[in-house]
């Protein structure tokens, strides 16, 4: 009976918090958890991401980011092939095993292009810069915070949409109501169709003072179909 009362009190207090806190306040509390020293704006660091996918070989990506220098590098190893894409401000360099003199056929064979390099830059900077990236220009934060039970856990949920020149997807970010850690996020291209994906975040890896989710497990919204898991680790360069 005592445990039931405590659970009820916790539920009621969480409901009250979701009604009292605004979207901006929730975002700020989460940023304080993940980036307590405000390091993201000057982030310079390197890390590795190991991707595990069903029925496919493990893929390791080594990533270097310098926000002040507008620099991004991605290295991927497959068998004896080391492919690298570098975006340095407006310049782009592609290489295979250190060779930058690549034919169009070779770039196509290894799926290398400057357009793809810039997409990866935006992808990795966005995902590993969350929740701080939600303060970027063009992001529209819904000031109404909701409470939701997802996969058996209670969360405070923040909705984010984007100005049309930035993006079209609708995102939901799920925060631990006690620590404000980001533990789930979810996106839809058309919410009425329940398309898109959700991502479960477990564990933490601290990279240059920023608490980043260590494991990201990706699933389809529609059928809970499993896609892949990304595992973050500190680069040997750090």
From TrEMBL:
Signal peptide residues on this chain, from the entry's feature table:
1-18
Q: Which UniProt keywords apply?
A: Signal
What is a single Pfam family found in this protein's UniProt entry? Answer: DUF6503
- This one is known as DUF6503 family protein
């Amino acid at each position: 009976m005592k445990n039931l009362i405590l659970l009820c009190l916790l539920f009621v207090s969480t409901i009250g918090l979701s009604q009292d806190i605004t979207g901006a306040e929730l975002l700020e509390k989460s940023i304080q958890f993940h980036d307590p020293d405000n390091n993201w704006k000057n982030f310079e660091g390197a890390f590795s991401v190991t991707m595990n996918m069903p029925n496919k070989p493990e893929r390791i990506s080594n990533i270097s980011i310098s926000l002040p220098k507008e620099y991004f590098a991605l290295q991927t190893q497959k068998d004896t092939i080391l492919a690298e894409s570098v975006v340095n401000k407006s310049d782009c360099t592609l290489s295979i095993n250190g060779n930058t003199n690549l034919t169009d056929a070779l770039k196509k064979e290894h799926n290398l292009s400057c357009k793809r390099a810039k997409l990866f830059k935006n992808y990795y900077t966005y995902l590993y810069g969350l929740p701080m990236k939600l303060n970027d220009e063009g992001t529209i934060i819904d000031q109404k915070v909701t409470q939701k039970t997802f996969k058996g856990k209670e969360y405070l949920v923040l909705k984010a949409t984007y100005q049309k020149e930035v993006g079209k997807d609708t995102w939901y970010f799920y925060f631990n109501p006690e620590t404000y850690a980001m533990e789930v996020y979810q996106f839809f291209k058309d919410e009425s169709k329940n398309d898109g994906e959700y991502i479960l975040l477990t564990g933490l890896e601290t990279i240059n003072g920023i608490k980043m989710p260590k494991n990201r497990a990706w699933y389809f919204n529609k059928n809970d179909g499993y896609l892949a898991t990304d595992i973050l680790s500190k680069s040997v360069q750090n």
